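Technical note accompanying the year-one report. For the benefit of new consortium partners, we illustrate the data format agreed upon in the data management plan: each record pairs a sequence with a structure-token string. No post-processing was applied to the example shown here.
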Amino acid sequence: MTFFSILFALLIEQLKPLRADNPVYAGARALAEKLEKSFNAGQVQHGRIAWFLMIAAFIVPVALLYWISLKIGPLAALVVNVAVVYVTLGFRHYSHFFTSIQLALNNGDEATARSLLAEWTKRDTADMDVSEVARIAVEKALVTTHRNVFGVFFWILTPLGPVGAIMYRVAEYLARAWNEPKAAEREEFGRFAAQAFYWIDWIPVRLTAAAFAVVGNFEDAIYAWRNFAGRWQDEAVGIILSAGGGAMGIRLGASVENAADVIPVDAGTVDSITLETEAPVGEEASVRALQSTVGLVWRALLLWMLLVLLLSIAKWLG
């Protein structure tokens, strides 16, 4: 059932992408802001209480609904699964930006590409050359693909099912929303949300990197992962981008002054990548790197779907 839930949700999203300003996401943002205003007194424990309340506000209704659907029958449970996966996936939330940037660069329209990247990342791109535009677009696409697709896949495959998928997406949002800007009282309040998501995402991050290695240049991906992931300020981002860049033979990462904003737009936050020097693996990012990224992501997606299918068959036979 999990395989068909993901398959149907992906097909529905291709036909009718969920808008970034949909009522569910808007409600999550409003509740997160309300909890922060109510609980943020500049202490870590206040952020911990608010985090658990926010998580419970979403997973308890979903758990109850899923339990009722299981009592009704497999078809009802499938409908709930599809609905949850559709809401939690974000495959098309950013792909139109990436595709438009790729088309603009292919047509030699650098101004449009910079404008689209600025709208996507909410940063100044006026002085960026083609290579930098391509690199930042690739970096953002790889990280957001993991957080909006592959991370959801992992948690829906766990015994928690749709509850796990909801927990992952809410935790990912809180880790962003409660940690920017870095005001002193907000830094303490959001510390637990960041730590919680680090552990929630610990296994999914490494599975995504492994998937990139399997469907790309395995040796270079593993080499870059082992030797250069630690040069990023964010460990999870470092693992994904080092493995993804190695798999495609592309150098990713920049100095802190010129780091890519790799956090999805809807939270309006920034997550910087830090590299002391460029990793001596692969070529400099170019227009072709965007096409390589599309191929890598789709191959990784097919690999995940194959694994989901095999696990579903094994569960059914068992």
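Partners are asked to follow this layout when depositing records. Residues 175 and 193 are 5 Å apart (CA to CA).
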